[in-house]
Specification:
Blueprint (H helix, E strand, L loop, with lengths): L1 H24 L26 H4 L1 H7 L2 E6 L2 E6 L2 H10 L11 H6 L13 H14 L2 H5 L2 H17 L5 H18 L10 H16 L6 H4 L15 H28 L7 H12 L4 H8 L1
Antiparallel strand pairs: 1-2
Helix pairs in contact: 8-9, 10-12, 12-13, 13-14
C-alpha cells in the first residue's frame, strides 16, 4: 500500500511540475522543436557520441540566434551567436546570473561547490577573489611558464614513445598534469598511469553523466533528494554516492598534499600553496577561506 501511494504522489508531483507550475511561472521562451506530452523534447537530445554543440547547429538556421529545448520540465536556452552570448553573460551578468540547475550533479553529487557551478553569490565572488590573487595578471601567470613547458616536454616524450598512437589519452594526461602541477605542485607518475589522473578522468566522466538533461527524475522533482534510500525512485542515490566520493578524492587528496608541504615549510610554486601562505600571512586562513581555496 505504501509503495502504491508513493508512486501516486510521484506522478502527481510530475504532472503539477510539468503543467501547472510551468504555466504559472514561465515567461515566453525562445522557439523550440515541437515536443511530446510530459517528456517535452526528450526525442531531440543528441544521439550517442554527438556533442551538444554539433547537434544544435541546425537550430540556428531553423529558429535564429536564440532557441530552446525543454526536457521533463527542464529548459535550456541555446545562444548561437558569440556577441549575443557575451552581452548576456558578461555585460548583463548582474541581472542574468543564473546557472542551469541539475539537482543530481550539483547537489547530490557535490559539484555545486565548484566555482563553475556557482551563480553570482558571495561564495562565487570569494572564489574569484582567490583566483584573481594568484592568476589575475600576465606576470602572475608567467610564473608557471617553465612548468607548462616541462609538462609539454613529457607529453611529447610519451607521444613519441607510443609512436603517435593514443593521442586522446596523452592529451587528457597532459591537461590533468598541467592542472595538478599548477594548482598543487603535484608531479604525476611519468611512466605508468597516475592514480590521481585516473581519478580526474573518472570524475569528469561521472559529471558528464550526472548532468545529462532528462536522465534523472530528481532533476525534475528536487524533493526526491530527501527520500529514504530504500524507497522506489531513490535509486539515483546509489549511483550518486560513489560519484561524490570520486569528486571529494579529486579535491581533497591533492589539496592535502599541498597544505602539508606549506605547513612543513617546503617551498614550491603552486596556486594553492601560494594562496594558503598569503592568507596565513594576513591572518585570514579560516574554514571559509580553506573551502574557497580548495574548490
Amino acid at each position: 500500500m505504501i509503495v502504491q501511494l508513493a508512486f501516486a504522489l510521484y506522478l502527481l508531483c510530475i504532472l503539477k511540475r510539468l503543467f501547472v507550475d510551468r504555466k504559472q511561472n514561465d515567461l515566453p521562451l525562445p522557439p523550440e522543436p515541437k515536443g511530446l506530452p510530459l517528456v517535452g523534447n526528450l526525442n531531440h537530445l543528441p544521439p550517442e557520441g554527438v556533442p551538444q554543440y554539433q547537434h544544435r547547429f541546425k537550430h540556428k538556421d531553423q529558429y535564429g540566434v536564440l532557441s530552446s529545448v525543454t526536457v521533463l520540465g527542464q529548459t535550456m536556452v541555446i545562444v548561437h551567436d558569440k556577441q549575443v552570448a557575451f552581452d548576456l553573460m558578461e555585460k548583463r551578468a548582474s541581472v542574468q546570473p543564473g546557472r542551469l540547475v541539475m539537482k543530481l550533479g550539483f547537489d547530490v553529487c557535490g559539484w555545486i561547490n565548484a566555482m563553475s557551478s556557482q551563480a553570482l553569490t558571495p561564495t562565487h565572488r570569494l572564489y574569484r577573489k582567490y583566483a584573481h590573487q594568484q592568476l589575475g595578471t600576465k606576470a602572475m601567470v608567467a610564473r608557471y611558464s617553465m612548468l607548462q613547458e616541462a609538462v609539454l616536454g613529457r607529453f611529447l616524450w610519451r607521444f613519441s614513445r607510443d609512436k603517435g598512437e593514443n593521442v586522446e589519452r596523452h592529451l587528457k594526461t597532459e591537461a590533468a598534469e598541467v592542472m595538478l602541477k599548477m594548482l598543487y605542485n603535484h608531479s604525476i607518475e611519468p611512466h605508468d598511469s597516475d592514480p590521481l589522473v585516473q581519478e580526474v578522468d573518472k570524475a569528469m566522466a561521472q559529471f558528464t553523466e550526472a548532468v545529462v538533461p532528462g536522465k534523472w527524475l530528481v532533476d525534475v522533482i528536487p524533493a526526491l533528494e530527501y527520500l529514504p534510500d530504500w524507497l522506489p525512485g531513490a535509486r539515483f542515490k546509489q549511483t550518486a554516492r560513489p560519484w561524490n566520493r570520486t569528486l571529494l578524492n579529486v579535491v581533497d587528496v591533492p589539496y592535502g598534499f599541498a597544505k602539508k608541504r606549506v605547513l612543513r615549510g617546503q617551498v614550491g610554486v603552486s596556486v594553492v600553496s601560494n594562496s594558503i601562505e598569503q592568507l596565513q600571512g594576513e591572518g585570514g586562513f579560516g574554514a571559509e577561506a580553506e573551502h574557497g581555496i580548495k574548490w
